[in-house]
Amino acid sequence: MRWRDAAVPLAIFALLAIAPFIGFGQGYSLTLLARAMIFGIAAISLSLIVGGAGLVSLGHAAMLGIGAYGVVVLDHARITEAWIVIPAAMAAAGAFAAVTGAVAIRTSGVHFIMITLAFGQMAFFATSSLSVYGGDDGYTLYNRTELFGTRALEGRLFFHFACLGLLILSWALVETLLASRFGRVLRAAHQNETRARAVGFEPYRYRLVAYALAGALGGLAGVLLANGAEFVAPAYLSWQRSGDLLFMVILGGVAGPHGALMGALAFILIEEWLAHLTEHWRLIFGPLLILCVYFMRDGMAGVLRRD
Amino acid sequence: MTEPLLELRGLHKSFGGLTVTDDVSLELRQGEIHALIGPNGAGKTTLIHQISGTLAPDAGQIVFAGEDVTRLSLAQRARRGLARSFQITSLLPGFSALENVALAVQARSGSSFRFFRPALHEAALNDQAMAALTEVGLERRAALPAAALSHGEKRQLELAVALAMQPRLLLLDEPLAGTGAEEAERLMRILGELRGRYGILLIEHDMPAVFALADRISVLAQGKVIASGTKDEIRADPVVRDAYLGDEEAA
Amino acid sequence: MNTTLLLIQVLNGLQFGILLFLIAAGLTLVFGVMDFINLAHGVQYMVGAYLGATLAAWTGSFWLGLLLALPATLLFGLLLEFLVFRHFYDRDHLSQVLATFGVIVFLNQAMKALFGTAPLQMPLPEALNGGIPVMDGLLYPTYRLAILGAGLAVAGLLWFLVERTRAGMLVRAGASNAPMVSALGIDIRRLFMLVFGFGAMLAGFAGVLAAPILSVEPGMGDAPLILAFVVIVIGGIGSIRGAFVAALLVGLVETLGRGMMPDLMRLFLDPSAARQTGAALASMLVYIVMAAILAFRPAGLFPARR
Questions:
Q1: ipTM confidence score
Q2: A and C: number of Cβ contacts within 8 A
Q3: Residues 6+ apart with CB under 8 A from C190
Q4: C-proximal residues of A, 255-294, CB under 8 Å
Q5: CA A128, CA C171: separation in Å to the nearest integer?
Q6: Hey, is the C-beta of A191 within 8 angstroms of any chain B C-beta?
Q7: Per residue in B145-156, is it b (16+ CB within 10 Å) or e — as a string?
Q8: A247 in contact with C at a CB cutoff of 8 Å?
Q9: Between the N and C ends of chain A, which has fewer C-beta atoms within 10 Å?
């Protein structure tokens, strides 16, 4: 990891840590910041497979959604302890990723994009048809996830720092994974698959593990998303959400999780700002997205690195 | 005599109606440099693809060190000690020269399902990678990204990667292709030093280089092995002279 | 479930499959020939439906609406190609996905801004209003049969164009070797535009056909787009024949699954659980079929010659 790649995220983390005390402490700002951080985690998880492994998934929202529905299923059964909910939701998302990935990763390129999109849609329709959990209308949580039986996560400030802590952990985890032996094989197979095979690696196994890990981490973001809104709906799994996540990664730059982090924060803030301007903010957002992709080939991280 | 290191038995491969490998049988002994020559389109590279595992033969058998590897993947064969270099340089452009080689060391040094320790700081991997780089004379370029190396240096790096795999057999597809006179000379010296330590199957167009390096030579034409033997046998073989060497040698 | 109901379901499935084919055909050609992944192909279907409904309302005639909507969708497709898509032909798939995603975001919202969120209605043409007895005591809507017929006719025409004409030969050659075709002195960009415009028009045609029986609303192209992706993945990218077979398969599986799954589940579960799992399974069925096919044939049923 280059020093400059770490400098930007560290500065962002520091800013997020002091934000509540420098004028962003009211409910609205904290909700927005939490949302930005949660999507930061989601984008970082996606960057592991897009940037690291070169697997362009257009179905990542399903991982968030399954994490969120993990909270719903347990909430319905009145199980709300974080130490049960979080591992269970992450395991569910990771398992879904492992099963669908086992099929999808056999293919590559545009096939992979379409198949992940299709599996994402499958998860979307499956949650829509679960009328026990509200079907299309969604499900309102009885209460937020509890920490050691306490309602700590209901405190806005506590939730802010919980999100921040998990964001930092996710970033550090993905950085570490990419720098490890495992990550080196992933990156090598991304750059030149034949070369990786020729020295003795089967990229499939590494990619599948990365895909499942990214799914589990996406599930974590889903748990937080459910808690932040205290509400979960199939819209969390919509394919447009997957597109948004992919855009966050590209906007920031695929070179590493720091790019995804920047991209997610920028995305949520731009979205919020535009939505304040006009009801039809998507009319601006769509062309903006196209222009960003066209002009910023290496994302924000690339712009920063250029001297 | 011990069993051959590599044995091809009746390999066949065709694309559509075009037969590119026609009943090829070949033996490569431990420690020898065996050159495979033949005109363009004779099917040399296709044969290397089948031996290394990137192409499946339609029929026939590939036996490596006494084991039938015909159905094994490229990666499985690599782990058994079959290393190949590519005719068109195939490296990891964004990795440093050292990391290109370290990846090959990593492939045979324990599990790569290790998730936390930074691979870049694993001394055991780096030391062995550096040794391979030194062997091909690239130790001063270790920190450069592979993309920044000259063409000749990339060929050297390919060789270093193959060596770092500690293979039993090297498949070298035109290692001298596109190199300048000086670079070619250096590569030839390196290859000569490898004799006896590895079995080497060498595809090369540079005839002086082939006759300088090879212990034995097989000649491929239109997918068939038309002759196989020592340098002198090949030089004297009328069929070969006719089909391939003829004019060059006379000149 | 009795045979009458089953027959209706089968006809519905085939008709849905034909619509999917019209969308998938353009998508698979555009991808096969240009190696360009176009998520915004679904909005062509939506735009077709809106244009059809609006033009029919203006002219007071379904037929005029249909007739005018076709060139209009063609022009619209070419306009998108000119403004956005062509600037991304030489970029990676990831950029193409996002750029065309941006087009969807914009156009879905544009439809909301222009027409509001309430669905538009397109009246059935007088001549096709009513039913045709397909068996004893079963009237099947004439219009749905007409969709089936029109779709089959277009499929036949498409097959003829691609397999039997010089332009079609170039399209097939371009799919397997674009540089070779440009070396022959053919303007590959013009060929691309031709394929693009034609594909857009087919999707628009599907949109107009569907307008009278589905609600015309923003985002209506998204779900068919994803099913069209499933179709071309199953059928094999670049293959018209594959798209046709897979589209009918997907249409049938989707329709029959929704109709029969809950009943099927009742054999194993109590009624309420059966309804739940049946509905969930039915909605997943198409994707499970896709996964099963890909597990055995990763390149699809009819991989295009490469």
A1: 0.89
A2: 134
A3: none
A4: 280, 282-283, 285-290, 293-294
A5: 41
A6: yes
A7: ebeebeebbbbb
A8: yes
A9: C
Pairing of strands B216-221, B224-230: antiparallel
Fold assignment, C3-117+140-296: ABC transporter involved in vitamin B12 uptake, BtuC (1.10.3470)
Element (H, E) at B216: strand B216-221
Which residues in chain B have their CB less than 8 angstroms from residue A196's CB?
103
Query: Two tokens at A136?
Result: 């299309």
> What are the residues whose beta carbons fall under 8 Å from the beta carbon of B169, sequence distance 6 or more?
B5, B6, B28, B64, B81, B82, B83, B198, B199, B200, B201
Residue with tokens 């995220």: A9
Question: What band does A306 get if pLDDT is binned at 50, 70 and 90?
Answer: low
Neighbouring residues of A197: CB distance < 8 A, sequence distance ≥ 6? A189, A203, B73, B74, B75, B78
Residue tagged 């495992």 (tokens): A182
Verify whether the Cβ–Cβ distance C298 to A56 is below 8 Å: no
| DSSP-derived pairing of the beta strands B33-37 and B216-221 | parallel
Return the bridge partners of A12, or none: none
Domain boundaries, chain B: 1-81+167-251, 92-166
State the smallest CA–CA distance between residue A177 and chain B in angstroms: 5
Which residue in A184, A185, A195 is closest to B91 by CB distance? A195
Contact call for C109 and A56, based on CB within 8 A: no
Query: Is chain C adjacent to chain B, meaning 3+ CB pairs within 8 angstroms?
Result: no
Tokens of A130: 């679960």
Which of A109, A129, A288 has the CB atom closest to C279's CB atom?
A129
**Residue C35: its chain A contacts at CB < 8 A?**
110
Cross-chain Cβ contact C282/A239 below 8 Å: no
The two beta strands, B82-85 and B169-173, are parallel
| Tens digits of residue pLDDT in C66-114 | 999 999 999 999 999 999 998 998 888 889 999 999 999 999 999 999 9
> Poorest-confidence range of A101-105, B236-240, C11-15, C89-93?
B236-240
The helix (H) or strand (E) run that includes residue A59 is: none
Chain C partners within 8 Å of A247 (Cβ): 98, 101
Nearest to B47 by CA among B203, B163, B243: B203
Nearest CA in chain B to A197: B75
Residues of chain B in contact with residue A201, where contact means CB-CB under 8 angstroms, are 75, 107, 112
Average pLDDT taken over every residue of chain B: 88
Task: Please judge whether C105 and A125 are an interchain contact, meaning their C-beta atoms are less than 8 angstroms apart.
Answer: no
Q: Which residue has the tokens 């939490």?
A: A34
The Cα–Cα gap between A63 and A132 comes to: 20
Are chains B and A in contact at 3+ CB pairs closer than 8 Å?
A: yes
Rounded distance between C-alpha atoms, residue A43 and residue C100, angstroms: 20
Fold of B1-81+167-251: Rossmann fold (3.40.50)
CB of C175 closer than 8 Å to CB of C32: yes
C119-163 pLDDT per residue, tens: 888 888 877 887 888 777 778 888 888 899 999 999 899 888 888
Q: Which residues in chain A have Cβ-Cβ distances shorter than 8 Å to B165?
A: 199-200
Instruction: Find out whether C42 and C174 touch, Cβ atoms under 8 Å.
Output: no
Domain borders along chain A are: 23-238
- Asked if residues B185 and B191 have their Cβ atoms less than 8 Å apart, the reply is no
CB B135 within 8 A of CB B160: yes
Flag if B116 and A176 touch (Cβ within 8 Å): yes
